Every structure is written in C-alpha cells, then in structure tokens.
Amino acid sequence: MKRFLFTLLVTCFLFSNCYATNKDRRKSFKSWDNYEITTEKVGQDGTKFVKVWGFGKSVDKAIMNAKKNAVHACIFRGLPGASTANPTPPLVKDPDCLEKNIDYFEKFFEAGGAYLGYINLTTDGVPAGQDRRKVKGGYKVALYIQVMYDNLKVKLENDGIIRKLNSGF
To answer: Whole domain around residue 152: which residue ranges?
Structure first.
C-alpha cells in the first residue's frame, strides 16, 4: 500500500511539472495571428486607413495591442481588400524575416517603441459601443487608425530589413 501511494505521488508530481513547463512556454509565445483588421480606405498619399481590433486585460492594453496590430499587419500580413481599396501585400516578402530579425522587431514593437511613429489615431478617446467589448480575460476594442505606410516602408528599407526597389535583382 505504501509503495502504491508513493508511486501515485511521484506520478502526480511528474505530470504537474510537465504541465507547468508547457504553460510557461505558452505564456512566452507571442501570437501575432490573433487579431482582426479591415481596410476602410486608402488615406492620403502614402497612408492606409484601417479598422483593427486588439485584446488586453484592460482597455488601455487592448488599445496598445490594436496599435501594434495595425503596424504588424502592414509589415507581415498585408491588408485585406475592401470595396473602397485594393488588397495591399505585406512589406516583408520573406516569411522568415521575423525570426532573422527578432531583436530588431522586439525593440521596434516594445512599449513606446518606434512603431508608434507610423500611426495616426483617428478614433477620439476610448472606444465605446460595438467597438469596445468585454470578453473572457479582458477587453476587445476596435480602433480606426491611419498607418503611414510609405514612411514605414522607407524605415524598413533604410534599416536593411527589406530591399529597396532600386537595389536590383
């Protein structure tokens, strides 16, 4: 009986450690595929006007995530087409670019990072109504954002992340 209880206790201990390790890995993994974005229209020359959703434990964190999502979509996912605008391909064509330049993009997207220089918020104040939803684990908010697309492209070209058009083949 003691041997059975000891074996049961050791087995429970081993499984609890495995679960904790997997949970920690899930926390450290940042998924950029968990957001919605729609193109509202082409803005002034060199800008894109989008509606983007962000998630967060608080409204402020959800707003910050929506801002990051708008710039991230322009760089890595591209913007979907709409009745008022054609689809826009991502600035980065290489699917491994994020992994190759992880230090650059971690710094670029950190809190208060350089990505903020490429967005103009067009939503005044905290979103309300359909653009602010209480969901399990926090809030989901939508912002209308004007992304300075051409300026962002020039920045990535100058930093060597993407190739300039005139760089040849």
So the answer is: 32-167
**Domain count of the chain?**
2
Are the CB atoms for 50 and 148 separated by under 8 Å?
no
27, two tokens: 């926390």
pLDDT tens profile 95-119: 888 889 999 999 999 999 999 999 9
**Burial label, 2 (beta-carbon count in 10 A; 0-12, 13-18, 19+):** exposed
Q: For residues 7 and 136, what is the distance between their CA atoms, to the nearest angstrom?
A: 38
Stretches where the chain sits below pLDDT 50 are 14-29
Q: How far is it, in rounded angstroms, from Cα 157 to Cα 151?
A: 10
What is the pTM assigned to this prediction? 0.76
C-alpha–C-alpha distance, residues 37 and 126, integer Å: 18
Under 8 Å between Cβ of 145 and 116: no
pLDDT for the residue numbered 4: 59
Q: Is 44 helix (H, G, I), strand (E, B) or coil?
A: coil
95: left (phi over 0), alpha (psi -120 to 50) or beta: alpha
Collapsing DSSP to helix, strand or coil, 35 comes out as coil
Are 39 and 25 within one domain?
Answer: no
